[in-house]
Amino acid sequence: MGLQTREQGYQSRDYGGNYPSIIRYNMQRIPIDSITILSMGYNPSERVLELEYRDTGDVYQYLEVPLEEYEAFQAAESKGTYLNKEFKKKGYRYRRLKRS
């Protein structure tokens, strides 16, 4: 069976900085075997990591995330533990996306 991807359009809101307040963004995400994260995607040219959370279905984009960070996240045995103990403490700026 081939790799399944999730690609959906969203509008972003609820963040500050030098980014537009509303954009349409499509990113392919791969399903993740995690009780916390449903799917994950990464855009290396924009350095954006996108996570879809399993419990709420909310999608967040984390900004200015280096490729090495994404690779470490992918390699982590527990994605939820990595998210909470390693990733979040680094303070990446983020935006919550709303389905369009």
Overview of the structural elements:
The chain is of the alpha+beta class and 100 residues long. It has one domain. Helix content is 18%, strand content 39%. The chain has helices at 67-75, 79-87, and strands at 6-13, 24-31, 37-43, 48-53, 59-62, 94-99. Strands 1-2-3-4-5-6 form a 6-stranded antiparallel barrel. Strand 3 (37-43) and strand 4 (48-53) form a beta hairpin. Helix 1 crosses helix 2 (79-87). The longest helix has 9 residues, at 67-75. Mean pLDDT is 81; it is low at 1-24.
- The coarse overall form would be globular
Tell me the structural class: alpha+beta
Number of strands: 6
For the largest beta-sheet, the strand count, sense and barrel status come to:
6 strands, antiparallel, barrel
Q: What order do the helices and strands follow?
A: EEEEEHHE
Per DSSP, what share of the residues sits in E-state strands of 2 or more residues?
35-45%
Number of domains: 1
**Secondary structure tally, helices:** 2
Mean pLDDT: 81
Tell me the radius of gyration. Answer: 13 Å
Please give the alpha-carbon distance between the first and last residues: 30 Å
Helical coverage, percent range? 10-25%
Strand order of the largest sheet: 1-2-3-4-5-6
The poorly predicted ranges are 1-24
Give a brief description:
The chain has 2 helices and 6 strands; from the N terminus they run βββββααβ.
Question: Characteristics of this structure?
Answer:
single chain, 2 helices, 100 residues, alpha+beta, disordered N terminus
Element layout with pairings:
Elements: E1 6-13, E2 24-31, E3 37-43, E4 48-53, E5 59-62, H1 67-75, H2 79-87, E6 94-99
Antiparallel strand pairs: 1-2, 1-6, 2-3, 3-4, 4-5, 5-6
Helix pairs in contact: 1-2
